[in-house]
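User: I'm putting together notes for a lab meeting next week and I want to include a structural view of one of the chains we've been expressing. I don't have a solved structure, so I'd like a prediction I can at least talk through. The sequence is below, exactly as it appears in our construct file.
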Amino acid sequence: MKWTEISKWAKGWGYKVDREKLAPKTYLYKWSKDDSSGEEHHVSTLATSIFNHMTNNKWLEYQRTYVKPIKEFRL
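Assistant: Thanks for the context. Below is the predicted structure for the 75-residue chain, given as structure tokens.
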């Protein structure tokens, strides 16, 4: 995902997004809408965070429903 694509997508839904350069190739991405806001370190987690806010965390519930426990292997 590209920052410009996510920025346009979020602004289209009424979100304010910004990024702050922390170091070379390292950014802190911020989003806000109304009384809600968040900070992420990756563009993909920024998009996921905004989507979860838009859908009232339905994506997280979906992920939790279909998570399979990791099998433990013993020697």
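A couple of points you could mention at the meeting. Helices lie at 3-12, 43-54, 58-65. The mean pLDDT is 87.

User: Perfect, that's what I needed.
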